[in-house]
Every structure is written in C-alpha cells, then in structure tokens.
Design a protein that fits this description.
- The complex is a heterodimer of chains A (348) and B (374).
- Chain A has 348 residues and is an alpha/beta fold.
- Among the domains of chain A are: 68 residues, no CATH class; 79 residues, no CATH class.
- In chain A, 33% of the residues lie in helices and 21% in strands.
- In chain A, a hairpin with a 7-residue loop joins strand 2 and strand 3.
- Chain A is globular.
- The N terminus of chain A is likely disordered.
- Chain B is α/β, with parallel strands linked by helices and 374 residues long.
- Chain B has a domain of 253 residues: P-loop containing nucleotide triphosphate hydrolases (Rossmann fold, 3-Layer(aba) Sandwich), CATH 3.40.50.300.
- In chain B, the strands form 2 sheets. Chain B has an 8-stranded mixed beta sheet with strand order 7-8-9-4-10-11-14-13, sandwiched between helices.
- The radius of gyration of chain B is 22 Å and the shape is globular.
- The C terminus of chain B is likely disordered.
- The chains are: A alpha/beta (348), B alpha/beta (374).
- Chains A and B meet through strand 1, helix 8, helix 9, helix 10 and helix 11 of A and helix 6, helix 7, helix 9, strand 12 and helix 11 of B.
C-alpha cells in the first residue's frame, strides 16, 4: 500500500443551487408509539433541496432516527402510528403511499446508509454480489452488467483494488471499507435523496474524515440531496448546508449551518454546544444540561425543554412556543429568544 | 522516598496469540511493543490512538490486569510486574479502573449500595455501619443521592451508571485512576457532566489520572500530557498544548487534521490521511507508519526510528521530524460566534452555575428544579 493523501474538493458543493421545489418536504410530522401518552415525534417540519445537505442533530432518543425511518416507511405500523403530517418526495407523499410504490423508490430514488455497515451487509454473500443485487432489483440489468456497475461504483467510492474486493465477504473488509461498500450500494441506482444515519459514528477519526470527504465529493458530482443524522456538531460543521436541532421529538431550532454555529438561539442548542469540549473551550468547566429528557408520560404540555431549561418561565411550561423566523431563514421555537434581550443579566 | 513518577514502564511488550485452531496458522498480534513512559504524580496523562493501536491493552498492563509478555511496570518505585499476588492485592485499592461501559462492569444482581460497599469490605477495616455511611457519602460525592443505594444498576441512565462506577473506584481510596474511554459511550451533554465530575474529584482527592481516549477534544480538555500510539508503539509524547499547537510526528499531524471542525468552513483544504491501519498481526517493517506517511523515504521502510528526545520535554519517533513542517491547523482556530451569541453562552453559564454538577439525570426526575438544583 502506497502512502498518498487526498486533497479536499473545497467548497464545490456550495455551487449547486437549491432547486425551487425541495426534493423532500416533511411537514408537521407527528408519530406516536403504541400505548404512549405523548407523541414521540412532535410536529416536525423540514425541507431539503437538490444537492443540499440537511443535518438532523440531537442526542439519543430525540427522534432523529425515528423521523428518518418514518420517511422510508420502515417503522412497524403496529408500534408506531403516524398521527399527522406529510413527507413529500418530489411532490408525492411517502407516508400515504402504497407498499409496492414505496418499495420501488426505496434503494432506488431514495437510498439509506446506516451507522454499522456490518449489520446491514449480509455475511454470506460477497460485497460485489450485494451491490449487484441492489442494482438488479431496480434495473433490468443482466448479471455481467450489474457486476460491472458494482465495479464502477467501487471505483467511485475509491475502494483500492476494486476487482479483488468485489469477491470478498464483509468480514474481510475494515470498517471504513465496509462503509464505502454501503455508500457504493446506496449510490448505485443514482438516488435523488440519500439518508445517512450516523454514517461515521462507528469509525476512527482519520477514517471518518475520509468518509465525510467521500460523501461530500460524490454529492457534488451527483447533486443528490442528503439528509444526514448525527449527534456530532463536528460532523455538522463539516458537511451541512442546513441544520435542524432536535430535542425530545421536536425541532427546536433550524437554519443555515452558519446561523446555527455563529448565532445559536435556543437554550438547548447552547447547552449542547457548550457541552462539547471542542466548542466549549479547552480549559475550565464544560457547560452542562441539567436533568434528563422527560419520559413520554411526563412530557410537559408546553415547551418540551422546559423541565431542563435554565431560562424557563411559567408560560414555557403551559404553552407551546411556536417556531419564530429570525432573519436569514433561521427559526427558533423559544419564547425567550433572543435571550440577551429577554433574560435578566443575573439570575435572581 | 517518593519519586515524582507514580507509574513507570520499561520496554513493555504484550503479544497476543490468535488463531491456530482448526483453520490456518496461529498469528501473533503485536498489541503493545516496547513502550517506555512515565506518568507524573498528580497529572492527567492521556493515551490517544485509533482502534487497534494498543491503548486499552497498555492501560490494563499498567495496572497488571493482564500480564506483560516482557518488560516492567513500576508503581511508586515498586516493581508491579514482580509483585506477589498478596502484594498486588494490597496495592489494588490504590490503583483503580473506570470502564467505558459501566453497565457491563456492574453486577446487575447487586444493589448500588452493595456494589460500592464491596471494595470497602475488601480494602478497609470498616464495620458494616461505617460502610453504609461511607457509601452514602460516596454517592453524594459523585452527584447521586444516598437513597439510590437501594436501587439496582438497570434503574439508572448511562451517565448515572458511570457515576456509580466512579464511586466504586473511589471507595478504596485510590491514588491512581485509569479511565478507559470513560465518556465515549455517553451522550454529549452527559459526557460533559462526567468530565466535570472527574476533574473535580481529581482535585479533591489529589488523584493522578490516566485517560485512554480516541476523542481528541476530550483529551485536549482534560489532560496535561499526551502519548500518541500507533500500532502498539508510542510515536509521540508531549505536553498537551505543545502537541496540539505543533504536532511533530506525521501521524499526530494527520490525527489532528482529522478532528471535525469546530465551525463550518474551517476544515477546507486539509489533508486527509489515506488508507487503513495495517493489521497489528503483520505490522510493517521499519517505521510502522511508513505505509501511510506522505514523508516516508526508503530509510523509513528499513529502519525503525527510536522514540527520541525532541526538546522541551517532548519525544517523537520519526527520522524526519526536524525537516517536516507541521501543517496549519486551521481546524482549531477560534469560532466566529456573534457577540450576541457569546452573551447567550455567558448567560447560560451564569444561570446553570451549581457548586457541583449534580447527577440529576435521575430516574426520579424533578420537574420543579429548573437547573440542576437537586
């Protein structure tokens, strides 16, 4: 293996303008789990344009993965009921679509990458066969053609010695290589929308950097819209055009990535960023968020963050804060924003 | 006589045999190879590296939780690797370990009180009543409540379980705490609580900390000195700020450049390390990093560079560290936060100030307490 370094593409992705109509438009999505007194996903809305990347950020249990599974129609209906809302993909509502129609889109126009590639790859087939299979599932390709497409995809995701790798089994590949195979499979049918759920969380730092670069480069080539789910603001800073911060099933703040980083408004966003050693400073105490996410049976009627918010007032507990739009497409669901104007300088 | 060094290792080696069953030949995994380092009393020493670099094996060797293949470990001048089982048992109380996943290290059939009392029983002469008082005190110290003693581990959140693991480690009155990825399984906001807690306790009990982690931001925040490992070897050792501002080894440089940017746009134009880590079963000859190093020459493939003195108390194992210019680490530049955003962070800090961050991610969550004030 020869040492080489890949130069970054730069900001090519920003050159792709957002199309007038979004690729995916999720509106007022609410989902309730069976026998739960409160909605797991609460009135979630966001949109992604062609060639754009939206990051859904939040901690475990905030509903970011459930949202993406709902869009893909992968939530078991007996357990999770959709209470309302739509998820329009190129104008068509995915949530009310029949099973066959959805299956024709899944893995084809809409593709998905998961966190742990080992559990999404079948251990008894070669990785080449698995990529070829996903091509043949949606295209009238012969075996040879499909294998050729798989090889082409392996080259595009920069797998070294691709001809040899095609005939290997998942366990023979490293974590980074497996994730490349998953990306090859996801992109093999030229999807319009790619959903990636924590695609780099299980990877080492240097491998994570490789995969993020790869996703960004491929996106610039193909113009695929990307919905990326992560808990890591570092990943967000690297890849997002737009960000939606989720807390307890609700989008508390959303906007262009620069606005979220340079001008965060929601107390939860502040707490989360201040908790990160990379953003919270190299010395001194880290900021923390007191308490924990309330369980469904104790979900407050008002703002869902009100039980942990340092700036809570009576209104927050009883009333839902609507998402208010700030300049630059930046939306915040908080009665007290902007804090520097509405909050006393010293706590009482 | 007290030496400045609490832990020292000399040419520590640990190889694992793998395979050699029905299928195929046995291979030797070079998990830790000739590691010589010393940890100062009272400092926070970090060992950093990617998966498979041998950092967890090294941590276990330091406390002799596993036996070395060769080499020595000294604790307070005594050779730990030559201690008898009885001597070792007597020292165990002073040397404690915090695990990554506290849940798998806590017996699910014991109450939290019994779990914390166990080390007191082994390492102290306390009577049953004294132990109960001590357990309550320890629970408070780690930000839990005394009444939590009667509960079982499954009733607690991940962050609280880590607090229980820390209370258990503190029970025997340790001088040295080793944390193997102590916060990496936790959510960001909980991670911050545990980091603050560990730093407070270190101060309060005058502990020496050794932190094993892959997250460089956590390392930078917590540690005084850092050892960087690659394929079983220490390739660079330096004071934390020196390492982060001017990394000398090409691997350290690559690692720092791979840190996700703290602000959008900051990571453009960086160099990304290509390729995968070679298998520790067949480490490359010469410098183990030469297969991925952009500065490698023929010499690097032939001759292993020793971990040599690089001045200012740093060491580096590279033939060419003097010639290589450290890359601009623009990923580490200050953020571009607006003034109003800075005011908001300041307000948040002011409004959440508590004497000690409470473990209030409690099962019994108190809706009336707005900010950690349990």
């Amino acid at each position: 293996m020869r040492a080489e370094t890949a130069e970054r593409e730069g900001s090519a992705r920003r050159a792709v303008p957002a199309a007038a109509a979004p690729v995916l438009q999720v509106s007022n999505l609410s989902i309730r789990f069976a026998a739960q007194p409160a909605d797991m996903i609460d009135d979630v809305s966001f949109a992604i344009g062609s060639g754009r990347t939206l990051c859904l950020v939040g901690e475990s249990g905030c509903g970011k993965s459930v949202t993406s599974l709902a869009i893909m129609g992968l939530l078991p209906q007996r357990v999770a009921q959709i209470q309302g809302g739509t998820a329009r993909f190129l104008g068509e509502d995915l949530l009310s679509m029949g099973r066959a129609a959805l299956e024709a889109k899944r893995g084809n126009e809409i593709a998905m990458i998961f966190q742990e590639p080992m559990t999404s790859l079948n251990p008894v087939f070669t990785v080449g066969e698995q990529v070829a299979e996903s091509v043949r599932r949606h295209r009238k390709y012969g075996r040879t053609e499909a294998r050729e497409r798989a090889l082409e995809m392996f080259r595009r995701v920069r797998i070294p010695a691709p001809e040899k790798r095609l005939d290997e089994y998942p366990h023979q590949l490293s974590g980074g290589m497996r994730q490349r195979v998953m990306i090859a499979m996801a992109l093999a049918n030229d999807p319009v929308l790619l959903i990636a759920d924590e695609p780099t969380t299980a990877l080492d730092a240097t491998i994570q950097a490789q995969i993020l670069d790869l996703i960004r480069d491929l996106q610039a080539e193909t113009g695929t819209a990307l919905l990326l789910i992560t808990h890591d603001f570092g990943v967000v800073a690297e890849i997002a055009d737009d960000v939606a911060v989720m807390y307890a099933g609700h989008v508390v703040e959303h906007g262009p990535v620069e606005a979220i980083f340079n001008d965060p408004q929601h107390p939860y966003t502040l707490g989360l960023m201040g908790s990160m050693p990379a953003l919270g400073g190299h010395t001194g105490r880290l900021m923390t968020i007191a308490g924990s996410v309330p369980p469904a049976d104790a979900m407050p009627a008002g703002c869902r963050f009100s039980t942990r918010c340092p700036f809570v007032v009576e209104k927050c507990r009883s009333e839902r804060p609507p998402t208010r739009l700030m300049p630059g497409g930046h939306g915040v669901a908080c009665f007290r924003a902007p804090l520097e104007l509405n909050v006393r300088a010293q706590p009482q | 006589m007290m030496s400045d060094m609490i832990i020292e290792t000399r040419d520590l080696i640990r190889h694992f045999k793998s395979g050699g069953g029905l299928f195929g030949k046995a291979t030797t995994i070079h998990a830790v190879d000739r590691v010589t380092l010393s940890v100062r009393r009272g400092e926070t020493f970090a060992i950093v590296g990617e998966s498979g670099c041998g950092k967890s094996t090294l941590a276990r060797l330091l406390l002799r939780l596993i036996e070395p293949t060769a080499g020595q470990v000294f604790y307070d001048g005594k050779e730990l690797t030559a201690a008898s089982p009885r001597e070792l048992r007597a020292l165990r109380g002073e040397l404690q370990f915090i695990f990554q996943d506290p849940y798998s290290s806590l017996n699910p059939r014991m109450t939290v009180g019994a779990l914390i009392a166990e080390p007191l029983q082994v390492h102290t002469q306390m009577k049953s009543e004294e132990r109960k008082t001590a357990v309550r005190g320890l629970l408070r110290k780690v930000g839990l409540r005394p009444e939590h003693a009667d509960r079982y581990p499954h009733e607690f959140s991940g962050g609280q379980r880590q607090r229980i693991g820390i209370a258990r480690a503190l029970a025997s009155g340790p001088k040295l705490l080793i944390g193997d990825e102590p916060v990496s399984a936790l959510d960001v906001s909980v991670q911050a609580q545990i980091i603050n807690l560990v730093e407070d306790l270190k101060q309060e009990f005058g502990l020496t900390l050794i932190i094993i982690a892959h997250d460089l931001a956590v390392i930078r925040h917590m540690s005084d000195r850092v050892a960087v490992m690659y394929l079983g070897e220490v390739v660079e050792l330096a004071e934390t700020e020196a390492l982060f501002s001017r990394p000398l080894h090409p691997y350290t440089q690559a690692l720092l450049q791979a840190i996700p940017a703290p602000a959008p746009g900051a990571a453009r134009g960086r160099q990304v390390l290509a390729g995968d880590i070679p298998s520790p079963a067949a480490p490359p000859d010469g410098c183990r990093f030469h297969t991925r190093c952009q500065h490698a020459t023929e010499l690097c493939g032939r001759m292993k560079p020793p971990l040599g003195d690089a001045g200012e108390g740093r060491s580096v194992a590279c033939h060419y560290w003097r010639e290589i210019t450290p890359p601009p680490l623009d990923t580490l530049t200050a953020s571009t936060r607006s003034n109003s955003a800075q005011q908001r962070f300041e307000l948040y800090r002011r409004y959440t100030k508590t004497p000690r961050d409470q473990g209030s991610d409690a099962v019994t969550h108190n809706n009336a307490a707005p900010a950690g004030g349990i």
